[in-house]
TrEMBL record:
GO terms for cellular component: membrane. InterPro entries: MFS, MFS_trans_sf, NO3_transporter. It is a multi-pass membrane protein. Belongs to the major facilitator superfamily. Nitrate/nitrite porter (TC 2.A.1.8) family. The chain crosses the membrane at residues 39-62, 74-94, 106-125, 131-150, 171-194, 200-219, 244-268, 280-297, 309-327, 333-350, 389-409, 424-442. Signal peptide: none annotated. This is MFS transporter. Its main location: membrane. The lineage of its organism: Bacteria, Bacillati, Actinomycetota, Actinomycetes, Kitasatosporales. Coiled coil: none annotated. Keywords: Membrane, Transmembrane, Transmembrane helix.
Length: 463
C-alpha cells in the first residue's frame, strides 16, 4: 500500500526536509552542489549587507563645509559608531529569524530591507545643513546590514560537514567582510574621479545591487529544515561557558576588524591630517586583505586546530599594535599604514580560526557525551543546534567590540593631545588578555586521569 503523500508546502517556499551532510554518499551525490549554490548567494547578500553597514565609514570622509556638512571629528566618529551598535544588536534576532523563517526566505527579506537606509542616505547626504541627528537616524537603519552576517553564518554552518565548516564559514564570512573594502574602494574611485563633494555617487552604486541580490536569493536559494533550532537554543547556549569565552576572543578578532575598518580613514585624518583622497587611498586595502585572509584562517584551523591558530594570531596582533605605538611616536605615516594593514590581515585570520572553534568545541563535547554513554545522534544534533546559536551570540558580541574600538578612538582623539596612542595601549592590553584566555581555556593539557565529563565541566576542550 502506498503511504499517503506528505502535504506540499506552498509553492512560494522551497524547503529541503532531509539534509545529512555527514553522510558521504549523500554529500557527493547532491549535497555538495546544493550547499555550494546556497553558499554563493548567501555570500552575495552578506557582502552587500556589509557594504551598506560600513558605508558611513566612507560617507564621513565626504562630509565637509564644502557640501554644507561641517561636522567635527568627534561627531564623525559618532556617525560611525551608531550603525556598528545597531548592527551588533540585530545579530541575535537575525540569527534566530533564519531558524524560524528559513535561509532563503530570510535572505530575501534581509537583502530587500537594505533599500531603506540606502534610499534615505541618498536623499539626505547632499542636502546642505542637514542636522546630525538625521544622519544618526539613517546610520542606525543602516545597521540592518550588520545583522545579515549572523543569519547567513547560522544558515551556512548547518549545510556543510564538520570537516569543511572552517572552509565554508571562512568563505561565507570572508566574502561578506569584503563588502567593507568594496564600499571603500568605490569611495576612492568617486573621490579620485568626481572629487570629494559627491557622496551620493557611492550610495547610488548599491541600489541595483540590492535589487539583484534579493531576486537571486529568491530564485536560487533553499530553506533547510536542518537549520531550524528547537525553542530555547540561544538560552541553552548562553548557559554554556564556551559561548562567552569564544565571544570574548571574537571581540578581539572581529571587533578589531570591523572597528578598524570603520575608523581607519578618520584615524588617518585625525592622526596625520590626511586629505579625503589620501585617506581613501589606503582605507580599502586593510579590509580587503583581512577579508581575503579569513578563509585562510579557517583552512589553517581545519588542519592545525582553531585554538592554536587563534593563539598565534593574537600574539602577532599584540606585536602589530606595538608597531603602531612606535609609528605614532615617530610620526611615521608609512609605518603606521603598513602596521595597520598587517593588523587587518591578522584579524582576518583570527576571525576564521575563532569561528572554526565553535563547531569544533561542541563536536568535542558531543564526542565526550557519546563516550559517557549518551545517544550519538542526539548528542551531535545538539552540538549542531548549539553551534548555530553560539554563532549568533558570538557575532553579536564581536560586533559590539567594533563599537568599543570606535568609542575608544573617539575618546582618544577628543582629548587634549588628540592622539591615538592611548587607544593602541588599550587594544594591546586586550590582546594580551585574549592570549591568556586562549592558552588557559583551550590549550591547557588534559591532566592525567581526568575523565571526559570532568574535562568538559572544566571548560578545557582542546580544539
Amino acid at each position: 500500500m502506498t503511504p499517503p503523500a506528505r502535504p506540499a508546502r506552498p509553492a512560494t517556499r522551497r524547503w529541503i526536509e532531509d539534509w545529512d551532510p555527514e553522510n558521504e554518499e549523500f554529500w557527493q551525490r547532491s549535497g555538495k552542489q546544493t550547499a555550494r549554490r546556497n553558499l554563493i548567494f548567501s555570500v552575495l547578500s552578506e557582502h552587500i549587507g556589509f557594504s551598506v553597514w560600513s558605508m558611513w565609514s566612507v560617507l564621513v570622509l565626504f562630509m565637509s563645509p564644502e557640501i554644507g556638512l561641517g561636522f567635527t571629528p568627534a561627531q564623525k566618529f559618532l556617525l560611525v559608531v551608531v550603525p556598528t551598535l545597531v548592527g551588533a544588536a540585530l545579530r541575535l534576532p537575525y540569527s534566530y529569524a533564519v531558524t524560524r523563517f528559513g535561509g532563503r526566505n530570510w535572505t530575501v527579506f534581509a537583502s530587500a530591507v537594505l533599500l531603506v537606509p540606502t534610499l534615505a542616505a541618498l536623499y539626505f547626504v547632499q542636502r546642505p545643513g542637514t542636522p546630525l541627528w538625521v544622519f544618526l537616524l539613517i546610520g542606525a537603519t543602516g545597521g540592518v546590514g550588520g545583522g545579515n552576517f549572523a543569519s547567513s553564518m547560522t544558515n551556512i554552518t548547518a549545510l556543510f560537514p564538520q570537516r569543511l565548516q572552517g572552509w565554508a564559514l571562512g568563505i561565507n564570512a570572508g566574502g561578506g567582510n569584503l563588502g567593507v573594502a568594496a564600499v571603500q574602494l568605490i569611495g576612492l574611485l568617486v573621490i579620485a574621479t568626481a572629487g570629494s563633494t559627491h557622496p551620493a555617487y557611492v550610495i547610488a552604486v548599491y541600489l541595483p545591487l540590492i535589487v539583484a541580490a534579493s531576486l537571486l536569493a529568491a530564485l536560487k536559494m533553499d530553506n533547510f529544515a536542518a537549520v531550524r533550532s528547537a525553542p530555547g537554543a540561544q538560552r541553552e547556549a548562553a548557559r554554556n561557558p564556551h559561548t562567552w569565552w569564544i565571544s570574548l576572543l571574537y571581540v578581539g578578532t572581529f571587533g578589531s576588524f570591523i572597528g578598524y575598518g570603520f575608523a581607519f580613514g578618520l584615524v588617518l585624518q585625525s592622526q596625520f591630517g590626511a586629505t579625503p583622497l589620501e585617506s581613501a587611498s589606503y582605507t580599502f586595502l586593510g579590509p580587503l586583505l583581512g577579508s581575503l585572509f579569513r578563509p585562510v584562517g579557517g583552512l589553517l584551523s581545519d588542519r592545525w586546530g582553531g585554538a592554536r591558530v587563534t593563539l598565534l594570531t593574537f600574539c602577532a596582533m599584540a606585536a602589530g599594535t606595538t608597531v603602531l605605538l612606535l609609528a605614532s611616536a615617530q610620526g611615521s605615516y608609512g609605518l603606521f599604514v603598513a602596521g595597520f594593514t598587517v593588523l587587518f590581515v591578522l584579524t582576518g585570520i583570527g576571525n576564521g580560526s575563532t569561528y572554526k572553534m565553535i563547531p569544533a568545541v561542541f563536536a568535542r563535547q558531543a564526542e565526550d557525551e557519546v563516550t559517557s554513554g549518551h545517544d550519538a545522534s542526539a548528542a551531535f544534533a545538539r552540538a549542531r543546534r548549539l553551534s548555530g546559536a553560539v554563532i549568533g551570540i558570538a557575532g553579536a558580541v564581536g560586533a559590539l567590540g567594533g563599537v568599543g574600538v570606535n568609542l575608544v578612538f573617539r575618546s582618544a582623539y577628543s582629548g587634549p593631545a588628540g592622539s591615538g596612542e592611548p587607544a593602541f595601549v588599550a587594544f594591546l592590553g586586550f590582546y594580551l588578555v585574549c592570549i591568556l584566555v586562549t592558552r588557559a581555556v583551550y590549550l591547557r593539557r588534559r591532566p592525567a586521569g581526568e575523565s571526559a565529563p570532568e574535562r568538559v565541566r572544566a571548560g578545557a576542550s582542546r580544539v
